[in-house]
Amino acid sequence: MSTATAVAVTGAEGFIGSHLVEALVASGRRVRAMVQYNSFSSHGWLELLPSEVMDCVDVVLGDVRDSGSVRDLVADCDTVYHLAALIAIPYSYRAPRSYVDTNVSGTLNVLEAVRESGIPRMVHTSTSETYGTARTVPITEDHPIVTQSPYAASKAGGDRLADSYHASFGTPVVTLRPFNTFGPRQSMRAVIPTVIGQVAAGERKVTLGDLRPTRDFTYVKDTAAAFLAVGTAPAERVVGRTFNAGTGGEISVGDLVRLIGTLMDADLAVLEDPQRLRPAGSEVMRLVCDAARLREATGWAPAHGLEDGLARTIDFFRDPAHLARYKTASYNV
Hints:
UDP-galactose 4-epimerase, domain 1, 40% helix, globular
């Protein structure tokens, strides 16, 4: 492991994490990347990054649920980006304790390590799911927290811990709350890769859940840029605060499917799969972001429109080597 001052990223092997690692290296930083320990020695999506990027990355196998792993990861770093989380909403109905262990207790371990080590900046990752169905739109950071799934509740618990550590100990933490991020490398538990992956595999009857909910979809490179923005902005502008990151636009799942069909030149029929439906009281029907606070504090703004981001994502899934990594015919919980 390099002894040079680095930034640490938990959840680095994941969808957003791998893009953030790429962006950090492009900005000139060396990255200490925590990958969840596994017996396959897999580095997840980091394995797709070019060698010139990985030359600036020190991969550390560990687990945020283990406090020792986290202390070793953050030692001598100047910024910690905490992205490690269990994220699939359907699986949170089956295994809620696992979400508490990772998203709450794991976040506690990161906060404790940052506090003990005197790290100058920690960026904690929240989610727009903590807002529940929009009561007012667009959603500002002052919107009530309404947790409609065990996943959302666990993420809100981590958020409250981050707030409490700043209030109680002055821990220099900032919370970023991305809305629905999409792009290359996303898992098929999310709607956009589910649709694109099925179409790229030759399907014209796409299997989905509820088509009514609306979402604010943000391209992953813009979300990564938002992480960099709050991680590097002057402390007085961001520390102790929560920031939404989203485009301010919204589209229903049904209209999204039609748009993807147009972009992929495919006439699609949608089949409803009951197992893909959330419980009625758990479905978040509308999310649309107000990112004015983030823009005012850091100057961040999304650089990619929905169609541009979808086109880039389609190109990724049309690569046979990438598509082969996915199980397009299965329901990915």
